[in-house]
Each structure stands twice: as structure tokens, then as C-alpha cells.
Amino acid sequence: MTSAPAFTPSANVAQLKESATIAVSQRAKALRASGREIIDLGAGEPDFDTPAFIRAAAQRAIDAGATKYTAVDGILPLRQAVADEANRRWKGSDKVTAAEVVISTGSKQSLFNACFTLFGPGDEVLIPTPAWTSYYEMVSIARATPVPVTGDPAHGFKVTAAMLETAATPRTKGLMLNSPSNPTGSVYAPEELRAILALAHERGWWVLSDEIYLRIAYGKAASSSLDVAPSRERLIVVNGVAKAYAMTGWRIGWTISPANVAAAMTALQSHTTSNAATVSQHAALAALSMRDEADAAVTAMVAQFEKRRDAALAILRTEPRIHVLAPDGAFYLYLRAPGAGKAADAGSAFAAQLLEKSGVAIVPGSAFLTPDWVRVSYAAEQAQVEEAMRRLVAAFRDLA
Ligand SMILES: Cc1ncc(COP(=O)(O)O)c(C=O)c1O
User: Fold this and answer.
1) Probe target for ligand 1 pocket from 134, 178, 250, 255, with the most ligand atoms within 8 Å of CB
2) Which CATH number does the domain housing residue 376 bear?
């Protein structure tokens, strides 16, 4: 190995923190490699295989020569399929067009493209908190200021329009929304979303609506911003295939935005990653256009998630001191760590103890700016989820 040169990170990345969710997964993998049996409920990744009809479509695409660059913003049939799906929701006269869609290497890149294109020094961006760890970092990389707005835990940590209004200043430029939410699993009711979008519209804020978990909802369907927004003028809808179709590794996401913003994001992407992987775009096209097959696959996976959620909640509720939010969507349980309110970072202490002593990986809430809490993913086999919940209850009793 060469000796490492003296190195000062550039101002671009000096403030950057490693993604805590990935850090936990890595520690779990290291323990596993050393021979420990670990149940990993840290990752936000469906354990299912990508449905067979999608894999078959990708194989056909490779054989048909889908191995070259595409347009930077993606193949037209996929952009059109995204637009068509949006138009089944958006009832305004300004129909969504393919020119407003940019396909990227995962919704993570889509979110980054949007933050980097819309926000800069001096801008403040409201982030309902707890939120997915990368929102804060992406806003910071754009040298804008993330402004966490902590929701009410009694209300699934959801924020209200009034809370956002209180946190806003003349510098507020944008708002990140995520329903269903990672990490809480909370889902905004249509009227809650409508009130927030009406405020954003009135104030001229850009809204980045991350809808990556939209299709993973229990009981009733989750609302998209496209269902209730008063206007699409400053709305960027972000989605992708990773979670609903069990396609994390294919890396396909997209934005739906006004065409001039789409053009600016395409220019940015042209100098960073170019087009998303060609074969993956064809796989995503199958997921969006073969609707009967896709609906059947999604329905089956969501039913499994729901069973696991119910089984996990039943075990957690055997310990009345555990305060857990019952999720209506996504595949996470958010619960208050033992010692919360007393120790400075009760969530990290609990997550570390659970991993090292009980062999269960979860994510400390500090990753989501709520250090009293921890996030448990139930995107794992039900028997594993149940065993992990029994160990979690035992560890909670030890510490509480
Ligand atoms: C809220 C949220 N948005 C976006 C992403 C990124 O997903 P993708 O795989 O499409 O980049 C994740 C993944 O964990 C997420 O939880």
C-alpha cells in the first residue's frame, strides 16, 4: 500500500458525514465475516428478488442490444411511462410530458440533482424531521442550509403547515417531503399534504416530494403530491423503482419537474454520470408498463411487509414501556430507545448494545436527527424479524 499523502478534504466535502445507515450495515457485515450470526434490520432494502417478468425484460433488452449510451435524460419510452403514470394522478390541464422527466441512477441521484440545481449559498431548506439522513447532507453539499423541523411524535412525527410556517424565514427556498416516510413509516393524509403544498405554493417554495415508498402502504393507498398540489409550478416529484419493485441494485430513479428545471438537471447529469444504466432503464420500463404483472408483484410484496409489521408490533407490544410508532407505509418501525430523555444519545447506545450483544443490527435515530429513537427495518424474512424483535424486547428490559 502506498503511504497516504497529507490530505485536507475540499470545502465541498469537509462537512460530509458517512451515511449512518450504511455504516451500521458495514459493521454488521464485519461481525458476520468474523463468524457471528447477525440479523440485519439496518438496511432499507426489500429482501425479495426482482420480479421475474422484470428480469426477463432486462435479459431481452440486453440481447436486443441495449448496451450503449442513451440520451442523458433517459430513453423516451421510460420517460413517457413515468409521465403517463403521473397523469393518472395529476388532474390539472397542464399534462405531464416526457420533457419534464429526467431518469437518473436511483432516486438518490434524482434528489441530489434537484438540490444541487435549485439550492445554493444563503438558501434555507425546510426538512421535516426525522428524515432520511441524505437530505441534510445533499442540501449541505449544495452549500445551502438544512433547517430541520421536528414533527410531533404523538402524531407520527408528521409536521403541519403551521410548524413549517413558524420555521420559515425570508431565506426559505425549499421544502423536502417524504410520505410514506423513512424512518417513521408515517403517511400524510391527503388533507395534511394539501395544506402543506398550499402553504409552499403561497410562499413560492420549491417542494421536493420524495415518493419512493408511495406504493408501500397498508390499509389505504398513500397520496402523491400530484393528487393534491394546487400547482406543479415549483413541484419536483421524485420516485424510482428501488423499493416498490425490489430493484435497489438496478439504480433507476426519476424526477418530474418543470421542463426548464429538467433541462438544468440534465445538463448537470451530463457532466457527472451521463445516462442511467441502459439495461436498467429497460427493466424499469417493464416495471412501469407491464401493469398487471407489476400490480400483482407489488401487492404480494406489500402483503408480506404488512404481515411482518403486524408480527413485529405484536411482539414489541408485549413490553408496555416500548413506545413504537405503528407505521402506515414503508417498512420501518421507529421506537424510543431505553434511557431516552436521560442519556445524550440513547438511540446509539441501544443500537450498539443490540448489535454487539444480541446480534441485531438497527439504525440509531441520530442518523435522522432524533437521537432518542432507533429505526428497525422489517424488510427481512418474517422469522428473522420475529426473532430480532424478541431479542430487542429482552435488550430493552435490560437497559430500561
Ligand atoms: C427516503 C428515501 N429516498 C430515497 C432513497 C434512495 O433510493 P434509490 O435506491 O432510488 O436511490 C431511499 C433509500 O433508502 C430512501 O429511504
Assistant:
1) 134
2) 3.90.1150.10
Ligand 1 closest atom vs CA 248: 9
Helices (H), 7-68: 20-33, 52-63
User: What is the dihedral angle through the alpha carbons of 208, 209, 212, 213, rounded to the nearest 10 degrees?
Assistant: 150
Burial of 205 (0-12, 13-18, 19+ CB in 10 A): buried
For the segment 173-224, what is each residue's pLDDT rounded down to a tens digit?
A: 999 999 999 999 999 999 999 999 999 999 999 999 999 999 999 999 999 9
- Tell me, in angstroms, the distance from the centre of ligand 1 to residue 216's CA: 13
Peptide bond into 183 cis (omega under 30): yes
Q: Atom 16 (ligand 1): residue with closest C-alpha?
A: 182
**Spatial contact of 361 and 25, defined as CB atoms under 8 Å apart:** yes
Q: Which ligand 1 atom minimizes the distance to the CA of 131?
A: 1
In a domain, 272, yes or no: yes
Q: What is the pTM of this model?
A: 0.96
Q: Is 127 in the pocket of ligand 1 (CB under 6 A)?
A: no
Range of the domain at 299: 20-49+294-399
The verdict on residue 5 lying in a domain is: no
pLDDT tens readout for residues 207-217: 999 999 999 99
Q: Is 26 exposed, middle or buried (0-12, 13-18, 19+ CB in 10 A)?
A: middle
Cell of 267: 445538463
